[in-house]
Amino acid sequence: MNNPGQKSFPVSWDQFHRDSRALAWRLTSVGPFDAIVAITRGGLVPAAIVARELNIRTIESVAVKSYDHQAQSAIKVLKPISQQVLDLAQGGGKILIVDDLVDTGATARAVREMLPGAHFATVYAKPKGREMVDTFITEVSQDTWIFFPWDMDVTYAAPISGGTD
Ligand SMILES: O=P(O)(O)OC[C@H]1O[C@H](OP(=O)(O)OP(=O)(O)O)[C@H](O)[C@@H]1O
Ligand SMILES: O=c1[nH]c(=O)c2nc[nH]c2[nH]1
Ligand SMILES: [Mg+2]
């Protein structure tokens, strides 16, 4: 989670678009894919960009929420993957799962279990979750918080040397 001692890695819309396009380029050697499953909500943005680049028109979403239950993190499925896409995977269709990042890997692990043969791609990865991802673009350290453009606003930044101007 986001603690005061963490490093920060702010990402602009422009950078996110470039990094998502780079992900699409990397995925060209893995596909073609029959469908994308975007993990909401953060995965919706890279999924749209990758779908455009790779000409994928069947796009499904899955919503999961992780929470701590008696010191064990559990996952609740808020919106499951449609039967149509599960059938597609069962019939040999190639499915691409997309999220914005993996951190601990808990979200990725849960969604992978729903689609064991799918290819899992994220734009960013932290070390703990990296092994859950097949393809990603940029790795950041575990103590870094990634700030996505849809979570930010333009605001004043204090000078590096301190002071107010
Ligand atoms: O690897 P993990 O430790 O599971 O963390 C990664 C997940 O956390 C964030 O989503 P979040 O659940 O905060 O919801 P959001 O996408 O709606 O912001 C992020 O978008 C990933 O889906
Ligand atoms: O915006 C976010 N940035 C992160 O680094 C992160 N890790 C888990 N969930 C996250 N959300
Ligand atoms: Mg998410």
From TrEMBL:
5-phospho-alpha-D-ribose 1-diphosphate binds at residues 41-42, 99-107. It is found in: Cell membrane. GO terms for molecular function: magnesium ion binding; xanthine phosphoribosyltransferase activity. It catalyses: GMP + diphosphate = guanine + 5-phospho-alpha-D-ribose 1-diphosphate; XMP + diphosphate = xanthine + 5-phospho-alpha-D-ribose 1-diphosphate; IMP + diphosphate = hypoxanthine + 5-phospho-alpha-D-ribose 1-diphosphate. GMP binds at residues 103-107, 145-146. InterPro entries: PRTase-like, PRTase_dom, Xanthine_Guanine_PRibTrfase. It comes from the Bacteria. Its cofactor is Mg(2+). Mg(2+) binds at residue 100. Guanine binds at residues 103, 146. Purine salvage pathway enzyme that catalyzes the transfer of the ribosyl-5-phosphate group from 5-phospho-alpha-D-ribose 1-diphosphate (PRPP) to the N9 position of the 6-oxopurines guanine and xanthine to form the corresponding ribonucleotides GMP (guanosine 5'-monophosphate) and XMP (xanthosine 5'-monophosphate), with the release of PPi. To a lesser extent, also acts on hypoxanthine. Belongs to the purine/pyrimidine phosphoribosyltransferase family. XGPT subfamily. This is Xanthine-guanine phosphoribosyltransferase. It comes from Paradevosia shaoguanensis.
